[in-house]
Design a protein that fits this description.
Largest sheet: 4 strands, mixed
Number of domains: 2
CATH topology of the largest domain: Glutathione S-transferase Yfyf (Class Pi), Chain A, domain 2
Strand content: 5-15%
Structural class: alpha+beta
Number of helices: 9
Length: 238
Amino acid sequence: MRYELYYWPEIQGRGEFVRLALEDAGAAYVDVARRPREMGAMSKFLESRSVKRPPFAPPFLKAGKLVIAQTANILFFLGPRLHLAPKEEAARLWAHQLQLTIADWVAEVHDTHHPVASSLYYEEQKREAKRRAEIFNVERQPKFLRYFEQILERNGGRVLVGNAVSYVDLSLFQMIEGSRYAFPRAMAKQERKYRRVIALHERMAARPRLAAYLASERRLPFNQEGIFRHYTELDNRS
């Protein structure tokens, strides 16, 4: 199967969680909108009236005749096919549940810099963003980190689900990467409390295919257009 991933070409964003799974598995895929003159293909597909089950927004994946949208849904589909999900149904649902929790976490990260509306510039909501980020770094980020630390502890410490690496481990890796970029001071203080999560991050980064991807030009750098954005005034250490 040759997969086609549709996502914005300038940012990691939610599409990066899908890219990490595809890259780690060595899957054949094309990042459609990043090809020359192909950005319009994504917009055209979204606007087409001939698509029976249109996505609400990117990312979405074409796999043969299937079109699958929503990051967690895409990974639920890809997981078994890329050997990045357990075979047992209950365990697959558990992995999906954890991925949906990560989706909640991603939304909260986004809202630290856009707490009022995505249609407004950050500069138009800086006061609200500062208050939201303070609460996030003091209350919400530690809660998510603590939760996944506990899941790792209960599962033996190496991976989140079962005995083998799954797409959820790769997604947790991305959450730590992004959080270190967005909130370096806050994360430097918090990481000491969540050694299992950080150790998992290091193990994922050392996986051969993933390490090659991270060192390549295919891995877009974090920037001020994506979900994880660094603003010094939002990076409190409390």
